[in-house]
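Structure in, sequence out. Go:
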């Protein structure tokens, strides 16, 4: 009986041990899978090269591009204000009603206007300050000298324009530029760079990194096959053990070769410097070739700009010439009036008496809109005393555009050109609005670091004072290292990315998140160009199911 009982206990212990060992074996075998499912799952992609078209965004307040100020020439009291900001008026519409003028002031001003006599001329005669013939002559000589001065400047601008047009004819008659010498220099610079030790080392590193990536793909495939076989899914495109071992061996050999070539680069700064100089020499040679190829077009552009500048200057000088001619004409008229006015005082008095009846028109007289447009501001109210040459209302002329400005950095401004079109960030709010970059000038608040962008704005929905958020495209640029915007992270030490590095373990490959500090060179809505300690073949983390820190294990998406 005791013998049977002992035998049963031994059977029970044996069975328990077998069960325990089986459970431990299963847990050990599946520990890699269990651990993977406890890790953050991350999505990642390789660093790429390509083109970035960045966008500059800014917010500005719309202002009238060509405001028209309605003023009054004399001190008057405002009886009533008939318009408010935002009103649209037609030419001739009443804006204000004025209180009655003082009778003496009205008579004096109406007499001067009806006699077509300047106030200064009238005062000179009235006070007995009639000039001598010699004084009149000196005034006329001075006026003619001013006309001659501006005539010479007009002639100078006209001659400059004619010379530029003749130069353009010569440029058009020239043939295609000879670029043989520049092409030879490009070929020589390219040959020197191709034979450079550092370039050869860099090319080899890139070649081995690609081969290493192929080995890694084989290793990953082998590990996927093992996982598939354990889960009962069968074998698909199975990698053999020999292929797996060969891939491991080759990956280490390629890494050794990469390290050897990288050490050669790191330990030979003089050769790296010589390589950089050869790269620069090739770039300079290519630029010289492009400049020569474009020399005819550049000459034409330069001559066109100079011609436009001189034409603008000619227009300004013609305006000054016309003003000098008008001044002389008015001077002759004033002299004639001054000489004869003392014989006409009785007649002038009669004219003043005759038009005194017009005084009644001043009672309830109004100020009318001189142009059609929109009222953008009203500076007076009923009862105010309007001063001469002070704006009572400001109008936006009908058909004229608006402007808006905001500041950007000098680096951003370098990638913009006058004429660039801007887009509204919330364009769905506006159906018809055109925004064009009109000027790029130093920002007076920080001229060394910033530029002020001024935009011309047209559209039926534009009103002064509204705030617009716009984006304007920079010129496209090529970059070697481009990552998704979601990969860019930032902390107190600056911006960085996390890359996935693979490490072998007895249970398979483990993936570790590694920090790489970067500088963002340019960005668009989806991706950013960066610089940092990157080769260009790294696997960059873009999203994760849990927060990820540098040095922590992660699980790749679709990788159990």
């Amino acid at each position: 009986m005791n013998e049977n009982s002992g035998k049963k206990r031994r059977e029970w212990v044996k069975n328990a041990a077998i069960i325990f060992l089986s459970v431990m074996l299963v847990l050990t075998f599946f520990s890699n899978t269990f651990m993977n499912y406890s890790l953050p799952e991350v999505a990642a992609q390789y660093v790429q090269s390509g083109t970035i078209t960045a966008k500059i965004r800014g917010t500005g307040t719309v202002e009238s591009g060509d405001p028209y100020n309605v003023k009054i020439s004399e001190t008057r009291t405002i009886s009533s204000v008939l318009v408010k900001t935002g009103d649209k008026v037609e030419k001739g519409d009443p804006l204000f009603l004025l209180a009655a003028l003082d009778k003496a002031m009205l008579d004096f001003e109406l007499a001067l206007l009806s006699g077509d006599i300047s106030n200064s001329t009238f005062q000179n005669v009235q006070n007995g300050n009639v000039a001598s013939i010699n004084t009149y002559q000196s005034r006329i000589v001075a006026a003619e000298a001013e006309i001659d001065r501006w005539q010479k400047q007009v002639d100078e601008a006209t001659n400059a324009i004619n010379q530029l047009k003749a130069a353009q004819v010569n440029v058009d008659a020239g043939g295609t530029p000879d670029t043989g010498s520049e092409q030879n220099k490009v070929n020589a610079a390219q040959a020197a760079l191709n034979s450079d030790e550092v370039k050869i080392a860099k090319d080899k590193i890139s070649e081995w990194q690609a081969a290493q990536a192929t080995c890694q793909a084989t290793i990953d495939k082998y590990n996927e096959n093992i996982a598939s076989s354990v889960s009962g899914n069968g074998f698909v495109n199975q990698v053999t053990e020999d292929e797996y071992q060969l891939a491991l061996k080759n990956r280490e050999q390629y890494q050794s070769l990469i390290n050897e070539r990288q050490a050669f680069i790191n330990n030979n700064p003089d050769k790296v410097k010589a390589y950089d100089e050869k790269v620069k020499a090739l770039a300079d040679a290519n630029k010289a070739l492009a400049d020569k190829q474009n020399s005819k077009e550049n000459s034409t552009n330069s001559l066109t700009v100079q011609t436009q500048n001189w034409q603008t200057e000619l227009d300004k000088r013609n305006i000054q010439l016309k003003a000098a001619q008008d001044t002389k004409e008015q001077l002759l008229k004033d002299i004639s009036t001054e000489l004869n006015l003392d014989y006409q005082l009785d007649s002038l008095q009669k004219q003043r008496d005759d038009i005194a009846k017009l005084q009644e028109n001043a009672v309830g007289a109004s100020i009318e809109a001189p142009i059609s447009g929109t009222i953008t501001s009203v500076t007076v109210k009923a009862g105010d005393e309007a001063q001469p040459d002070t704006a009572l209302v400001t109008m936006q002329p009908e058909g004229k555009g608006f402007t808006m400005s905001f500041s950007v950095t000098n680096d951003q401004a370098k990638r913009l050109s006058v004429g660039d079109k801007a887009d509204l960030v919330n364009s769905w709010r506006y159906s018809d609005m055109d925004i064009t970059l009109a000027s790029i000038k130093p920002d007076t608040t920080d001229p060394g670091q910033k530029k002020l962008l001024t935009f011309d704005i047209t559209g039926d929905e534009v009103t002064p004072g509204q705030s617009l958020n716009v984006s304007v495209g920079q010129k496209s640029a090529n970059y070697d290292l481009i990552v998704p915007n979601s990969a860019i992270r930032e902390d107190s030490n600056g911006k960085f990315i996390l890359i996935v590095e693979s490490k072998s373990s007895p249970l398979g490959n483990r993936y570790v998140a590694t920090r790489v500090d970067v500088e963002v060179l340019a960005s668009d809505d989806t991706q950013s160009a960066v610089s940092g300690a990157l080769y260009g073949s790294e696997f960059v983390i873009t999203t994760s199911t849990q927060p990820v820190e540098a040095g922590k294990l992660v699980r790749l998406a679709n990788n159990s």
